[in-house]
Structures are given as C-alpha cells and as structure tokens.
Amino acid sequence: xxxxxxxxxxxxxxxxxxxxxxxxxxxxxxxxxxxxxxxxxxxxxxxxxxxxxxxxxxxxxxxxxxxxxxxxxxxxxxxxxxxxxxxxxxxxxxxxxxxxxxxxxxxxxxxxxxxxxxxxxxxxxxxxxxxxxxxxxxxxxxxxxxxxxxxxxxxxxxxxxxxxxxxxxxxxxxxxxxxxxxxxxxxxx
Length: 189
Ligand SMILES: [Mg+2]
Prior knowledge:
CATH architecture: 3-Layer(aba) Sandwich
Strand order of the largest sheet: 3-2-1-4-5
Structural class: alpha/beta
Distance between the termini: 67 Å
Number of helices: 7
Largest sheet: 5 strands, parallel
Bound molecules: magnesium ion
Number of domains: 1
Helix content: 40-55%
Order of helices and strands: HEHEHEHEHEHH
Radius of gyration: 19 Å
Oligomer: single chain
Strand content: 5-15%
CATH topology: Rossmann fold
CATH superfamily: HAD superfamily/HAD-like
Shape: globular
C-alpha cells in the first residue's frame, strides 16, 4: 500500500472520532522505523515502517500536532535520518536523549515546550516499561508490536476517546456532588 492509500485510510479512521488528541507522540526505534539507529551509519538511507508516513501526513492534515520521545543515545543519527526521510519539520518537539527514567522526563519537556496537557496526548512505543510510566502520567499510551500501522492508530484513537469519556464523566460527578452539597464541609464539622 502506497503512502497516499495509507493516508486516505488514516484520514477515514481519524474522521470517525469526535474526540481527538491534540498531540501524538512517537518513539523512533521499532515504532517509526524498524531498527536501532545507534547501530546505523549517518551515511545510510533509512526507511520507515510502511504505514508510518501516511499516518503522519493524515494526522498533520487533521491539525493534530506531532512529537518525538526517544531514548536513543545517538540524537545526531536520529535527526539526520528524520531529515533524510523528509519528515523532520513535521514534529513540533523532538526529545531525543538517553535517560534513566522511562520517558517521563521526555514528556515533561514536551509538555513545557508545547503547553499541551498530558491527558490530551496519545503516545506510541514498542517498550512496555515506557508505556506503563507514561500512561501513569495521564497520556493514552499504546504498545506497538511491529511498528506504527493503521491498526495501532485505530486502537490508539479508540482508547483515547474512552479515556476522555471517563475523565469527563468523573468531572461531571464531582460537579454534581459539589452543587448538591455546597456546604458539605460544614456538615462534616
Ligand atoms: Mg523503541
């Protein structure tokens, strides 16, 4: 399937959701491309997973921002590859550095750089420890098996809107509780 076909299908998938993330964050190695970039040379011509480019273009088309959170120790190689692939300028934030935390510091930086609340973010990564850590911060986090593809996109957007509904429901519950018992703290004392 060519990039244009993938983009068209991705646009259809995205179009079916009423609630969408404001920012989609991608890991690099084994999420956007099928290798560890630290094992490659800058002189090589890299390639992305087959669905990656179409998905990036579709998200961008829908006005959704894109960012990168990678623990790669070779940011220079990663950035050269993104440039060679013609996608570097698509990302509003590129946090690429090795770290002892499981990307929580990457997300803090993405949040302060973009101002997007973490619960308005959708994240794709191939490592479960990153998924666990980042979902605790409030981002909808999806474990990918063989890189990003249309199935993972569909799953991500479904989970995102489910999480969003839960947040909204809880907000309503609190508002209702508060408006019914505006003096509840007085009653306790
Ligand atoms: Mg990875």
